[in-house]
Specification:
Oligomer: single chain
Mean pLDDT: 94
Strand content: 25-35%
Largest sheet: 3 strands, antiparallel
Structural class: alpha+beta
Radius of gyration: 14 Å
Length: about 110
């Protein structure tokens, strides 16, 4: 859900909690995509309190800026993983002509 109103932020938090509950009994899970949420958002703070690892932060020691693609100023795209999944590599790719976000290439060992 894009947008920066409190209503949109709360909707994103509700959505991620539903996803979290859906996968709660699964051992190995990778959640990824455009979360429309900055690292200090309720959504990302919630995921950071769970068993999910923030893959970009784990590998790079910081969240990589993914938006906008021409001159990224914020991180709103993520990979999170839980279970017996090892994060091997995590990097950005792509040009602004192709998309409005930088792409993320993540390599895992399962």
């Amino acid at each position: 859900t894009p947008g920066s109103t409190d209503e949109k932020k709360n909707k994103r938090l509700s959505q991620i909690k539903k996803i979290f509950e859906f996968f709660d009994n699964k051992e190995n899970v990778i959640l990824c995509g455009d979360f429309n949420a900055k690292p200090n958002s309720k959504v990302i703070k919630f995921l950071n309190t769970t068993e999910y690892k923030n893959c970009g932060k784990f590998i790079n020691k910081k969240n990589l800026k993914t938006f906008p693609s021409k001159n990224p100023k914020k991180c709103i795209d993520y990979f999170f993983a839980k279970g017996n999944i090892k994060i091997k590599d995590y990097k950005l790719f792509g040009t602004y002509e192709a998309t409005d976000h930088k792409g993320i290439k993540a390599t895992f060992i399962v």
